[in-house]
Structures
1.
Amino acid sequence: MKKILCFLLLSACGFKPMFSGNDTNIYVPVISGINGIELRNALNTKFGGPRPSDAPYTLTVTLHNPTTKYKAIETSGAATWQEINLRANYVLNYNGKPIARGTETASESYTFVQYLVAANASYNNAVENTITALADKIGSRAIAEVYKNENKSNKK
């Protein structure tokens, strides 16, 4: 009952959800590196699929190499826990003119073990989760800026 009442109140005020299922027309150019490919794929998925290069919005992303730092060290000096950090700079252009820019970071901790295969799997999972978090942050900001720009254009 509370959900229905909340929906009725919001629909009466003209509220329109930003993520209302409409695909955004944002082209994401190639992002260098293996992690860049994954980030671009995640962003395209968030935007409703890849767009042609002549789309009105272009999101250019520069992804920096991941950095790691030790989080826990045993008394023997062996690391048991690490954190991976990814940083990306982005610029959102509308018809060639920048409308938003920024830097986003994401991090994920993972268990670092002595066994090579397990250590690589743990690291790769952490990188994948970090890329997903980074795509969510950048994608949400880009969608918000597109929504704001479209509403500003419609009011003119």
Note: Helices lie at 2-12, 34-46, 116-155.
2.
Amino acid sequence: MYPANRTLNRQIQQVLYMLKRQYGGTVSVYRLNDAETDVRTGRKWIDKDVFVVRRAIVLPVKISRAVVKSIAQISVGKTPVHGGSFDSGLRQFIIDARDLPGNFEFTNDDWLVYNGRRYEIKEIHEFEFGAAWIIVGKELMGRVPEQVHLVAADSLIGLNAGASNQ
């Protein structure tokens, strides 16, 4: 945040806070660091980071059907050939900059997962003063998100406790 505009910064933060309370949802931001494939075994190794945003502003999805036409259908004098169609959804996310690490910058190679659905980043808009980002995500219906689930094991076993095979 820029110190010269403290009043404006405070107003932006208050509006973001109110929107997060009304339209907040948990969104995971994924960043692909590296990917390798072993050519002998065919096994893939993927290194990615996950940043969980507990309260991102999630706006309603706009679903549309896209039709892909072949050149034969477009050309004059050809017999009609049907193209393919698929459903996709566009959704806007507003993510507060305070919910991510300080030096975080979105790239078009990142993706979001919300409600078990994967959204490829189509557009990135940055708020004034680095306060937040508006992310336009495109979902292809039926695509598996390949999520990373964080698992924690908590236990109340003391250091002097023992276990037996019975």
Note: Helices lie at 6-23, 71-74.
3.
Amino acid sequence: MSPVLILYAVLLAIAVLGLWAAYRVLGTPSRLTPGDYTLVLEDLLQAVTRASARLRAALQAPDSESALEDVAQESRKIFQTGYYQTLRLRPASGPDSGQAPRTALGQACEAYDWATRMLSSESRSNPAIRRAVLELMDAGDRELDRARQGLATPPPSPGRSAP
């Protein structure tokens, strides 16, 4: 066998091991105790709520366009992180009582993310784009309200059925 073929085989093996390790780390959902799971969801809800409020205030302020673009870029990071967290979070055991609020929170993050993408484009001064951004933000607000209500509702006790 030639040394080049051996080198390629070793590099292929290293690449396969690296991909396998990345899958093990990134591919498995985060498993949390029920108390921590609820706490992380509530913290995520608060972070997304603050970021959406800053974004809406920047959108409605008559300030410069660059300030709006800066707020949109900062907020997008929060919304993207929030969206991926809602995909990964799971309780360690038992039923997933936070599944509905987690889904609503993920949908809100997705709507806000698209709004920030539109605000970061060159077309942000277009009135049609502004209307679309406001509609996306209103949809995100509705999903945040659903998530907030879902987190405020106590989970049913094990011996009783849900109403």
Note: The CA atoms of residues 36 and 103 lie 17 Å apart.
